[in-house]
């Protein structure tokens, strides 16, 4: 790694990326390639000799970009966005530049200490109770994804329950994962009555319910589970309550969105993804836990090769014991740069402007009598559909296909209680009002053609 080459080649790649952003709107948002397209474009085996960067970048342009769906396009309205920013990119570069492996404190003290500080900063911005913060009685950690975080707290909850039940004897009990039905009547949020029913049913069958995952901003519809009420049921039956706020958690930096997480003090753990709606490039998931010791009890390893005085002193966090893998990236640098470069003021502005655009889109849908809003909007996700006239089951699916195949926008769908709905998730960093207006015009035009 020669610093001069590093500097020159990095600049070339940055210029390449800047050019990509400059031309982003020229590409079809959803890639149109067929499966296997790349293997016919690239050699069958790896090169023996080094190749010039210029050749590689040419291949990125000619072979890779056609197979990229442009998540950073302002016309990307599918799934939940992965909003990036210059600050997120710079933080990612610093993380990659140092390339440390901060599995324990001694392996790179700054990595651990910055992570703890940034998790407390984030927790304070989200107004989490101090029981989740290092400055209180809990603590936080960065994972790569919400699913990873959920698996870790699930392991902690299981081991806690096993301990309370008397240990190993129960280890071979049948596993007991339940999806609890939601419906239109509750706006697709989890009903405390249904939860209670499911718990009592399991107990009657000799099972031990031990973990409840509630969601703030569900993926299909942005529904919000009633945390305060669910928390009471969870406490009554000694369930570990985890809150998945992957998408909507970022919204809690805005006072007007805070009420959605009322009751958070009843949870044992909570996670959210800054890589969704907090201008932080992939990947970054914050997990806070009230009793980090339970996570460590469940996940820690203590091989001789990693033993050191700092760990022995118990005065430091060894983050390898808060996650599945041993190795870990210096993700905190990225989140730290994002928070510092934007400041709370601009981060709130970002969330609010997405919500304002979603509100306007929702109003436009409401004004067109051919369409209907299917679920009331809470954040920047609008779920809507063309009202089916006769039994035209495929109408909305065809509409999504027509929009996506135009290349001018990309949307996705969900099925709620058997009903196909179109999701319009507003929130890429570059989306502005005129993109949303153009999307609505496109939807109307395609609907017109389909209805003719
Ligand atoms: N939970 C919710 C509510 C989500 O919306 C998503 C993804 O969109 C996930 C979890 C999965 O997150 P991850 O990919 O970080 O595991």
TrEMBL record:
Pfam families, A to Z: Pyridoxal_deC
Keywords: Decarboxylase, Lyase, Pyridoxal phosphate
Biological processes, Gene Ontology terms: amino acid metabolic process; carboxylic acid metabolic process
Transmembrane segments: none
PROSITE patterns in alphabetical order: DDC_GAD_HDC_YDC
Cofactor: pyridoxal 5'-phosphate
Modified residues (N6-(pyridoxal phosphate)lysine): 276
Single GO MF descriptor: carboxy-lyase activity
GO CC, one annotated term: cytoplasm
Family: Belongs to the group II decarboxylase family.
PANTHER family: GROUP II PYRIDOXAL-5-PHOSPHATE DECARBOXYLASE (PTHR11999), TYROSINE DECARBOXYLASE 1-LIKE (PTHR11999:SF169)
Name assigned to this protein: Tyrosine decarboxylase
Organism of provenance: Gossypium anomalum
């Amino acid at each position: 790694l020669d610093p001069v080459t590093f500097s020159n080649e990095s600049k070339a790649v940055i210029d390449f990326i800047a050019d990509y952003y400059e031309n982003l709107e020229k590409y079809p948002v959803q890639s149109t390639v067929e499966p296997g397209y790349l293997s016919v474009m690239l050699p069958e085996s790896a090169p023996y000799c080094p190749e010039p960067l210029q050749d590689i970048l040419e291949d990125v342009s000619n072979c890779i970009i056609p197979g990229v769906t442009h998540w950073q396009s302002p016309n990307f309205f599918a799934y939940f966005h992965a909003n990036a920013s210059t600050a997120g990119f710079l933080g990612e570069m610093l993380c990659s530049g140092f390339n440390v492996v901060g599995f324990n404190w001694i392996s790179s003290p700054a990595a651990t200490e910055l992570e703890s500080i940034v998790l407390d900063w984030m927790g304070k911005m989200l107004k989490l109770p101090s029981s989740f913060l290092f400055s209180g009685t809990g603590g936080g950690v960065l994972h790569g994804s919400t699913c990873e975080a959920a698996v870790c707290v699930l392991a902690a909850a299981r081991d806690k329950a096993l301990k309370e039940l008397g240990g190993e004897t129960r280890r071979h009990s049948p596993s007991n994962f339940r999806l609890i039905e939601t419906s239109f009547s509750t706006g697709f949020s989890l009903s405390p009555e249904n939860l209670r029913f499911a718990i009592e049913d399991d107990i009657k069958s000799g099972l031990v319910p031990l973990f409840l995952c509630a969601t703030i901003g569900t993926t299909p519809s942005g529904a919000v589970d009633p945390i305060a009420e669910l928390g009471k049921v969870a406490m009554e039956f000694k369930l570990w309550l985890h809150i998945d706020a992957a998408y909507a958690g970022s919204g809690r930096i805005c006072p007007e969105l805070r009420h959605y997480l009322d009751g958070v003090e009843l949870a044992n753990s909570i996670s959210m993804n800054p890589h969704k709606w907090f201008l932080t490039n992939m990947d970054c998931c914050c997990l806070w836990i009230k009793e980090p010791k339970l996570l460590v009890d469940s996940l820690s390893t203590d091989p001789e090769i990693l033993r050191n005085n700092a760990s022995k002193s118990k005065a430091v966090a060894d983050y390898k014991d808060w996650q599945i893998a041993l190795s870990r990236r210096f993700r905190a640098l990225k989140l730290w740069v994002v928070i510092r470069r934007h400041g709370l003021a601009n981060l709130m502005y970002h969330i609010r402007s997405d919500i304002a655009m979603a509100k306007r889109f929702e109003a436009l849908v409401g004004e067109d009598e051919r369409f209907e809003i299917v679920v009331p909007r809470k954040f920047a996700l609008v779920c809507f559909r063309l009202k089916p006239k006769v039994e035209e089951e495929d109408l909305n699916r065809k509409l999504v296909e027509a929009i996506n195949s135009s290349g001018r926008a990309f949307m996705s769908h969900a099925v709620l209680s058997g009903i196909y709905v179109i999701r319009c998730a507003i929130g890429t960093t570059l989306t502005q009002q005129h993109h949303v207006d153009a999307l609505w015009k496109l939807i109307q035009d395609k609907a017109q053609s389909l209805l003719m």
